[in-house]
Amino acid sequence: MKPIALDAMGGDYAPQETVAGALLAAKEGIPVVLVGQTPAVKAELQQQGGDLPIVEAPEYIAMEDAATDVRKKRGASINVCMELVKKGEASAVVAMGHTGATLASALFNLGRVQGVERPTLLIEMPSEKGRVYLTDGGANVDCKPHWLVQFAVMATAYAEAQGVKNPSVGLLSIGEEEGKGNALTNETYPLLKTTPGVRFHGNVEGRDIFKGTTDIVVTDGYTGNVVLKLSEGEARTLLKWVREALTSSPLARLGGLLVRGALQGLRAKMDPAEYGAMPLLGVEGPVFIGHGSADARAVRNAIRKAKSVVEAGLVERVRASIAQLTPAES
Amino acid sequence: MKPIALDAMGGDYAPQETVAGALLAAKEGIPVVLVGQTPAVKAELQQQGGDLPIVEAPEYIAMEDAATDVRKKRGASINVCMELVKKGEASAVVAMGHTGATLASALFNLGRVQGVERPTLLIEMPSEKGRVYLTDGGANVDCKPHWLVQFAVMATAYAEAQGVKNPSVGLLSIGEEEGKGNALTNETYPLLKTTPGVRFHGNVEGRDIFKGTTDIVVTDGYTGNVVLKLSEGEARTLLKWVREALTSSPLARLGGLLVRGALQGLRAKMDPAEYGAMPLLGVEGPVFIGHGSADARAVRNAIRKAKSVVEAGLVERVRASIAQLTPAES
Q: Which of residues 163-182 of B touch A (CB under 8 A)?
């Protein structure tokens, strides 16, 4: 396997946490190349006592830069990562943080899979059944019905690449019956019913996401992004309230000590870092975008995920399933 | 105060829970009139050993009926409730369950406040600051920018009636800066900046809802309904996982016994029944819609809320604040 290109300069704690995460992944035998300003990356590697290949990138996209800056800063690390994949020298891109810039750079350097109208960000969330994939996570705010159909197709390919057999797809709406929803969902519903390769369950509601009613939930990127951030925020608030309850009296504090271990598993399950990164589906190469606030473990998890997806032939799967669509659907 | 008209036939557990809830409210000195099929309601009152005035309604809207059935079943209990308010014989309507039918009945019988384009359902949710009001909760799936402006105005009037001083309003979007959002939010943002009587904070994200960044969050009814159901579903799942963690080992079970009391407060805080009911704002009378699965306590809480809102002059406040808008905004 060609190495995974990690944007060493991306995220709030780069290059410290990116380098640390890359070293953790390398220890597991995953080949990684660090892309960034060589002096800074080299210094960080020395500091941490590790050694990994570096590919020089003279510039980088800061969190406060605009997504379109990837066109001005041609030598930005995220662009160099994409070029490595394009030239076949890396097998995937992993970048923490600037979602807009990574999306723009992927489109600019790798381009779309033939037939794909809009690439989509796929979010992985915990559910009572294990996990649920949500598309679109915020790449496309105002969507057309046939874009949502393509999101469903690409998410199905991704879920299958992750080992989900015959994944079911739900359309996020505000009632179960066909016709309960907004203009977008009402136009999308009949299309999804007849899309080849998609096992369409019908509408699902907000409550079905954590219940895990379907493996995949499809919605527009505005709603998907609200769902992602609400679910993370609610988990944070609820776990904070649990913590507060467990220190609210001497008796609760004693009980809290006894249940601490049991609750840690739950905290990990709700931690976005566990899921590592969101794949960008529909571009000509595996691209993963992680949280800007990623620590070393989150970076390692993102690299792990990229590896599993590359091995499962994600881009080939997406190409094949999009090619199955009739021109009207694609 | 004129009595509150309770639709005794509405909800999954009517008339048992509606009658029980009405008796609880009456015990607190809140005047309630039960509206429904007299024999069934009377039998239930006798069964529970209580006594309350009954207004006969020969029909009722079942949960599986269509919202438009309120026009066919003119003698439905929900219609009779609205007529009592219209005639000045009741001060508010409280109905558990069929949101669409209650909305249709309110529009049909009471009509809209002058200048209001679309009435809105207001959702009350817990937050780290206490509570947050979300509008629209699902009455209007596809919205125009100036409808959202009116929702903000009406929600402000409601929050003030509930004792919130100078409530702040956030526009639900996917980034904090103006211009980060979809077509609807991008058109709504500049309008909200100049709306008289609205303290506009700017965009808020999904994570800001539970954080309580603003007192009020404005969005379209599709997104609002997804937010409502996701937040309820996630709370249910997380508390279930907490419960499971607390029985996962003998040690955790022992600790779980000690913290049970402390966690009960949290469970109550996340229980939708605590909030009782959603007000329907913008119709010519105070109307509250509760969960279809409401038990007696939820019914009582809904009646309590209706009382406090009536006493605070909600409809007059909504009228006054909508009248302040220029024709372009209303």
A: 172-174, 181-182
